[in-house]
């Protein structure tokens, strides 16, 4: 009785096909696993690492109840600028949205009306740890 098996060529093709199928499943699983396991990088956090600005000047006109503010930006475009007024009793006003972007390497002026009896101004940006305070003259 003669037994016949599959030819060596067919066996090699089957082994390669099975190996490639398993490799495909493992690659798909590995990319899905890594994508869900690693934390997403925060673009804002990365760009804000180098953010810095300064309150170049702050002038208060008590007659017109108006604050004239000049901000100086150094490194990156700053967005979502908001001004807060700090009063003598340490309370803080609601945000005054400055409605603009402060481009990098620029000075920009702002006017805020309707403010009384504050001791300092605080300006915050879209970067969580980037803010400045100043006493207006």
Taken together, the total number of domains comes to: 2
How would you characterize the largest beta sheet? 4 strands, antiparallel
Radius of gyration: 31 Å
Task: Specify the helix fraction band.
Answer: 25-40%
What fraction of residues sit in β-strands?
25-35%
- Tell me the strand order in the biggest sheet: 4-3-6-7
CATH topology of the largest domain: Immunoglobulin-like
User: Would you identify the CATH H-level superfamily of the largest domain?
Assistant: C2 domain
Please state the overall shape, judged from the principal axes of the Cα atoms: rod-shaped
Average pLDDT: 88
Termini separation comes to 110 Å
CATH class of the largest domain: Mainly Beta
CATH architecture of the largest domain: Sandwich
Total strands: the figure is: 7
The low-confidence parts are none
**Derived structural class:** alpha+beta
């Amino acid at each position: 009785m003669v037994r016949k098996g599959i030819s060596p060529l067919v066996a090699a093709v089957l082994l390669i096909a099975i190996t490639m199928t398993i490799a495909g499943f493992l690659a798909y699983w590995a990319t899905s696993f890594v994508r869900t396991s690693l934390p997403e990088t925060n673009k804002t956090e990365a760009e804000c690492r180098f953010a810095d600005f300064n309150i170049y000047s702050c002038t208060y006109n008590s007659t017109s109840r108006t604050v004239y503010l000049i901000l100086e930006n150094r490194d990156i475009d700053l967005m979502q600028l908001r001004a807060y007024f700090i009063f003598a009793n340490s309370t803080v006003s609601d945000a005054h949205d400055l409605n603009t972007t402060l481009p990098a390497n620029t000075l920009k002026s702002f006017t805020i009306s309707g403010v009384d009896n504050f001791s300092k101004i605080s300006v915050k940006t879209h970067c969580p740890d980037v803010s400045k305070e100043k006493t207006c003259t």
